[in-house]
Amino acid sequence: MEVRSESEVHVRSEKVLPLQGQMIQRTRLKVWFIRVCSSILIWTCLVQLIAVWELYHPRLFSGFAGYTKLSVHVEETLPSPLPLLPARNYTNNGFLQVSCNGGLNQMRAAICDMVTVARLLNLTLVVPELDKTSFWADPSNFDDIFDVRHFIDSLRDEVRIIKRLPKRFSSRYGYQPLEMPPVSWSNEKYYLQQILPLFSKHQVIHFNRTDSRLANNGIPLELQKLRCRVNFQALKFTPDIEALGEKLVRMLQERGPFVALHLRYEMDMLAFSGCTHGCTKEEAEELKRLRYAFPWWREKEIVSEERRSQGLCPLTPEEATLILQALGFEKDIQIYIASGDIYGGERRLAALRAAFPKIVKKDMLLEPGELRHFQNHSSQMAALDFIVSTASSVFVPTYDGNMAKVVEGHRRYLGFKKTIQLDRKGLVELLDLHQNGTLTWNEFTAAVRQSHEGRMGQPARRRVIADKPKEEDYFYANPQECLCEGKTCNDLFGPDNSTAVK
């Protein structure tokens, strides 16, 4: 048995005690660290639980003074979500992909139609692809413009919508969907009898063009109402677009009533239509070259004055000035220019600005930094104009394109807000007569006002032209089935207020 001397034990104990002290100190630090982390974690969870609880039971903590600021912050940053509707249970017949073509409002109407087709055929719809190859070359995706989560959730009781196809249908696995454009202005029988059977062979069909693929009239009432539901409720702009659009509206309304003038005197419109009235020879040649540069603008040789006399040209800024004056708008009225760059720039706006000095545009109201995110994204800029136009005191489009039609329909839906539907064919005749001295100003004014008494966005039945769907009234400009409760709408339009053309 080994016996250690007292001195050896003493030396060994001197070495052990500091080590034990260090170990105890480390243990205490660990305990302290764990307690701090646990406390932070518990408080974080508690705050989150209180925030969620307050979101659904906002009155519960209203008596606690210390919680007031927190509850305000929660309400501002996390608006109370609407309860989800129960998902519709149906046997899926296949997947529908769609690539929309055109500008924002043309694509908007197409999306509404494609949701309706998917519902009719019991399909799963893939979130639509937006046009990136047109004149505007806007790279925006669906979720850059619309609130995609709201779009999917708000329609879940009607149709299943997914963000992308299942992997087994991807090109990586060698799958190629059937690509086709459906026939324009088709009713539900076409889709049921000719499109639906294709899904038994092709599980995925890709509609590569979607403009005007569903008829205006003769569609079952429930499908017409679904088109409206998508348009007026499901297609919400992103929070960023909504916030900036509402800011523009607020700034304008604080200054008084305002007119939204959709002055469609832009390069693409003039090139496409061949309308060069008021342009120089050099400008007319530039527009012609642009038209020939785009193969899908089929009509090339166009006589501008013939097109204008038929009412197929947008009014020039100078013509719009005279019409607004004739309609009785005062000099001090605010006029918001809802459009892109006017062809000819400020030179072409000179007459309008002289007659109505309170002309404003987006870039005049907002700081450059506020618009920077939206520039070079024509559809996002158009979305801002859409918000302002639907909220304006009066909406005046100088051309009946998709923007004019869809905004008109929204304003009808919002209570038949005043929308002046200009009769361009009649106005061109009156303008020429006035400018050549045949009509005095008073005679010109009286004629303009008389011809537009029934063109102010009042309740009216859609004009139906058998076998000529392109010439009849557009569904999204006047969705009459969605503006009244009954099937006949006689209480709104009257039994004899029919505009059908035999």
UniProtKB/TrEMBL annotation:
Membrane topology qualifier: Single-pass type II membrane protein
Chief place of localization: membrane
Name the UniProt record assigns to this protein: O-fucosyltransferase family protein
Any matching Pfam family: O-FucT
Organism lineage: Eukaryota, Viridiplantae, Streptophyta, Embryophyta, Tracheophyta
This protein's pathway: Glycan metabolism
Keyword terms of this UniProt record: Carbohydrate metabolism, Fucose metabolism, Glycoprotein, Glycosyltransferase, Membrane, Signal-anchor, Transferase, Transmembrane, Transmembrane helix
Keyword Transmembrane: yes
Species for this entry: Datura stramonium
Localization: Membrane
Keyword Transmembrane: yes
TM annotation in the entry: 32-53
Family that this chain belongs to: Belongs to the glycosyltransferase GT106 family.
